[in-house]
Amino acid sequence: MTEPADSQERSAGAPPPVASRERGVHPAVQVGWMFGRVFNAVFLATMAVIAEASLARWVPLRPPLFGLGVFVVVLVLGLWHARMLFRSWKWALRPDDVVARYGVVWRVSRSIPRVRVQHVDVRSGPIDRALGLVEVSLHVAGSAGPVLTIPGLAPAEAGALREALLDSAKVS
Fold first, then answer.
1. What is the Cα–Cα distance from 82 to 30, expressed in whole angstroms?
2. Residue 3 burial (CB < 10 Å; 0-12/13-18/19+)?
3. Are 112 and 38 in contact (CB under 8 A)?
4. How confident is the model over 60-118, as pLDDT tens digits?
5. Distance (Å, whole) CA 30 – CA 44
6. How far apart are CA 161 and CA 153, in angstroms?
7. What pLDDT is attached to residue 171?
8. Considering just the CA atoms, what is the radius of gyration of the chain in Å?
9. What is the per-residue pLDDT across 10-56, written as a single tens digit (0 to 9) for each?
């Protein structure tokens, strides 16, 4: 029994096949995003209260009500946005490229050819570390920064993604 041609090519040094199924980000990333939205709501409400207090001599408003209204509106919209962003985030590592689709208001669909990936960064901030998450950034030649950052990955998944991308760079 002979092997199919693609199996023979693989054994000749080509990278192993990569599952191309689309994946979402880890559910815990929502907590980090929501934490950021709560912080933004508190900050903007504080600024609204300060602005309202400084304008109180010219405009008859009740200082805590405007700030509370800003807090509630920003918080509700922010939490909704974090939830929808989590639902929209999809990515896949395919044999020839890395694809990502995300966005709530502006939707982005990005494809990065694997042969163009120069280096891969795996990083995590304090909130990500507390949640046990990392993010992977892909850099290509000619770009000032990462062309794609995939947030909310488990460290093992990020390591596997990094190794797969680096292995395909060695073959090229």
1. 6
2. exposed
3. no
4. 666 578 889 999 999 999 999 999 999 999 999 999 999 999 999 999 999 999 989 98
5. 21
6. 10
7. 61
8. 22
9. 444 444 444 568 899 999 999 999 999 999 999 999 998 888 888 77
Amino acid at 70: V
Helix (H, G, I), strand (E, B) or coil at 8: helix
Q: Any long-range contacts for 145-153 (C-beta under 8 Å, 24+ apart)?
A: 146/121, 147/110, 147/112, 148/98, 148/100, 148/110, 148/112, 150/25, 150/91, 150/100, 151/25, 151/29, 151/89, 152/25, 152/26, 152/28, 152/29, 152/32, 152/89, 153/25, 153/26
**90-171 is classed CATH 2.160.20:** no
CA separation, residue 23 to residues 73, 98, 102 (Å): 32, 12, 12
Residue ranges per domain, the chain?
Answer: 33-84, 90-171
Instruction: Return all residues near 75 (Cβ < 8 A) that are at least 6 apart.
Output: 37, 38, 41
CA–CA dist 163, 172 (Å, integer): 14
